[in-house]
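Repro case for the chain-ordering regression, as requested:
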Amino acid sequence: MERIEPRARSDAYGSRINRSHSPLLANIIPWGSILIGSLLPIFPIASALPIVPPLGFLMLLAWRLVRPGLLPVWAGFPLGLFDDLYSGQPFGFAILTWSVTLLVIEAVEMRWPWRAFWQDWFTAGILAGSYLCAGWLLSGATPTLPSLVAIVPQLVFTVLIYPLVAVFVSRLDELRLRRWRRV
Amino acid sequence: MAPSGQRRSSYSKRAQYNLFTGYIVAGAGALIGAVLLGISFFQPDIFDGPRGAAQDAASPATETVAVARTGSKSLWDSISGYYRAGSKNAELKREMELARIRLAEAEALRRENVRLKGLLDLQDEERKPVAVARLVGSTASSTRRFAYLGAGSEDGVEVGMPVRSARGVVGRILETGTTSSRVLLLTDSESVLPVIRAGDETVAFAEGRGDSFLRIKLINLGINPLAVGDMFVTSGAGGYYPPGIAVAIVTELTDDGALARIVSDPAATDFVSVEPIFEPEAVVGSQTPIEEELGD
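-- result from build under test --
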């Protein structure tokens, strides 16, 4: 008998024979990666300017836009609560903004159900920009012009890094649905 | 990616209710967030407990990274030290000779100080640091400038204590957890520090601007006496910081003072020390409303 092409029975998530998805990974990876994203900005010491993009927020945007329907619309509350513990903004800021962001994306999706990547990037850029400006306005300190100027490099960096985050999330999504050997 | 079609209402009552509840919960979440945000504006320290606990929980990771960071920094310093080593060496030797002379002069001054203080019967009590620890992290994505310190209430750290490095003031303690605490850095826009110019007694306030500069606001307005390169040190007013610690160097003059850069950049220091509050009584006095009498 002729051997068939070995990859004929597999797809992007691996071979199908004697393999199945892991429910644990499928559920944990999106939430866990956003939590780690919230935690990462505390590691570098930025004494002069805010330089690190809000990685938790970017991961949330990327999961929501790359994989619509995966995160429930109420996910902003628990994830924002965790982000508030580490971000340095007044408590409640991320709960409010992340919930509102998910509701806004829901509305955008209702209006434009079919989108290309650059439209997603545009949405993410607008949302991240308003998030950073809201962070400047509601930081607990008096908003001053110099501190507004100081967030410009972070803003540019945040918008430019979104495609990378989106690619990373799509790789994580492949890992999430990978089939593992059963026996 | 194509929408998943979950939003399309089906004939399943359960699916419809699930969708509807999701929106309700999301809206309620946003409302709760707004309320919490409002509360934390009026009572900023009400959420210190959970935040301190969260910081303590993350401290194994942050400590490890801080150790790796300081290690790699010294490696990089030793590599970059070879660049133009000869000319640097000559320059350093010249500076060293000058510094030796200044040191001898300072020693003479110190002796004179001791003698004069002895005459006046003033006692200098020795000030020991409460704790020495690493700065383990910071709020690098927020507009506020906070740093996290690897020592907490277990080590005797209390809210308000000044934090300094070998070079100068870093900030002061804002919140304490059990094994970690949060430091308000000088560059934060809520940080105000009474300072004087080293050399004479020009009194000023150093306010953080939130963009890496400190704004030096002179108390006596008039002709601006400052010049680029002036060094400002703590004045000891307010009671938190002991006098005479380096704070900032003027880089640019403005109408009512100057812009200055901090002397002790927290990103460049590995260990910092937490010191006891300089004059606790003065701090209590400054926090008591004018209507209330200060008892003794």
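Ordering looks correct now. The first strand of chain B starts at residue 131 and ends at 138.
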